[in-house]
């Protein structure tokens, strides 16, 4: 998965991208993990199954 697949068009900024970025920031603060780890795995994809349980 490339960054553009996940984030869409990186040049477009609106309320949805702000909310998404804020959510990723909160996940980083809560978990102590970076948004993308060394193997380029997304924190969101890692956390989603845990949140939806």
From TrEMBL:
This is Serine-threonine/tyrosine-protein kinase catalytic domain-containing protein.
């Amino acid at each position: 998965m490339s960054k553009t697949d996940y984030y869409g068009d990186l040049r477009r900024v609106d309320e949805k991208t702000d909310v998404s970025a804020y959510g990723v920031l909160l996940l980083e603060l809560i978990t102590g993990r970076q948004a993308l780890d060394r193997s380029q795995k997304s924190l969101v994809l890692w956390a989603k199954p845990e949140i939806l349980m």
